[in-house]
Amino acid sequence: MTPALLILNAGSSSLKFAVFGADPAGALQAAYHGLIEAIGRNARFKVFHAPDAGDRVDQAVSAGDHEAALSHLLHWLDTRHPGLSLRAAGHRVVHGGADYRQPVRVDAAVLADLEQLIPLSPLHQPHSLAGIRALARLRPELPQIACFDTAFHHTLPPRAQRFALPRDLEERGIRRYGFHGLSYEYIASVLPDYLGDAADGRVVVAHLGNGASLCAMRQRRSVETSMSFTPLDGIPMASRCGALDPGVLLYLMREEGMTPAQLDELLHHRAGLLGVSGISGDVRTLLASGDPRAADALELFAYRIAQAIAGHAVAIDGLDALVFTAGIGEHAAAVRAAICRHLAWLGLMIDEAANARHGPCISRTDSPVSAWVIATNEEKVIAQHTWALTVDAA
Fold first, then answer.
1. Does residue 205 carry a pLDDT above 60?
2. Which residue in 102, 140, 251, 378 has the fewest CB atoms around it within 10 Å?
3. What are phi and psi of 144, to 5 degrees?
4. Quick check: 316 and 224 in contact, CB under 8 A?
5. Contact criterion met (CB below 8 Å) for 243 and 231
């Protein structure tokens, strides 16, 4: 039997998963990854990566809720891959609050703590916890590990954690937390493979996907980040606004009569690239469009990101390297080029041919600031923590 780990990322109507197997030396290798989407509607079970092409899956399934989706996944593993012995499960949990600075084995007390953080992440936290509870009902003997997107940013100095608000609000948890930490943790772990000794220098990482943020690192530790109290802050995203004058919200409530629920819908689902373009929040669609509104949205996206990168350079006293990662960062050459052109004054000179090939190095050899494309792997980070806290610890 091959020891294996199940890695889960539960969304409102989806369940992303990966299965990692361990060789005799304990080295982890991804065996499968996929998702169950449209849970509660017309659910489909998809496996994108498998050792053999014949095992790739795209089929309709009956999954009215996350527990039913998990049950289908576990049945598929048991029947199609009986040689895998699940030893533990690891979960991406968006918010760990002020206390959870490291991954932790989940028990009733931890679940109760994490439930108290739902108001800080109402769109993500409930689904993560629902996935943990569902798996506990289906496999009560299986150890579960929670890995937090906020944990990597606990190294932020006080000036980067604090809002300019009364301190009693800060003491009640209203502060900057930062997110996408599992992605940044992975990039930090592999930076020496690409940058050598410069990995410990002044680096800004741009995690550009459906959600997008920046992280300034020194000694491969988080010094500044663009998301803050919630994943709404910072740079524009697919359908999230990014940084916004809070006076706009007061105006919309006072003059337009918008309720908190309506503001929530606007800021999370009708803003960002989708809101500006009126077409789509998907960069691929916008790049393929001839509509001038698509060009406007992409121009704003690149401009705001470049502005924020320059601001993050302040936190680390300059810039030695810029790293692009996640879906847009790894695949949208035109977006990377537009951002880099805005940063030419910092000494960043892009190599257009290398950028078109998606790197890994996309800057010219004589560029004082290097630029890179590095694929992220949050699932591997979760798997490593899960293995360390369960199998290695046994």
1. yes
2. 140
3. -125, 135
4. yes
5. no
Cα gap 206→372, rounded to integer Å: 10
Contact, 145 vs 88, CB < 8 A?
yes
Among 54-58, 302-306, 354-358, the range scoring the smallest mean pLDDT is 54-58
R_g of the chain computed on alpha carbons:
21
366 — pLDDT class (breaks 50, 70, 90): very high
Domains and CATH numbers, the chain: 2-148 (3.30.420.40), 196-378 (3.30.420.40)
Peptide bond connecting 143 to the previous residue in cis, omega within 30 degrees of 0: no
The answer to whether 148 and 103 are in contact (CB under 8 A) is yes
Active-site amino acid positions = 149
Among 188, 313, 173, 155, CA closest to 230: 173
- Residue 22: its pLDDT value, please? 87
What would the mean pLDDT of 129-152 be, rounded to a whole number? 96
62 versus 355: the higher-pLDDT residue is 355
Exposure string over 123-155, b if 16+ CB within 10 A, otherwise e: bbbebbbbbbebbbeebeeebbbbbbbbbbbbb
pTM of the model: 0.95
User: What rounded mean pLDDT belongs to the chain?
Assistant: 94
Scored b (16 or more CB within 10 A) or e, 321-332 reads: bbbbbbbbbbbb
Residue 192 has pLDDT above 80, yes or no: yes
From CA 133, how far away is CA 283, in angstroms rounded?
35
Buried b (16+ CB within 10 A) or exposed e, 240-264: bbbbeeeeeeeebeeeeebeeeeee
How many residues in the chain? Answer: 394
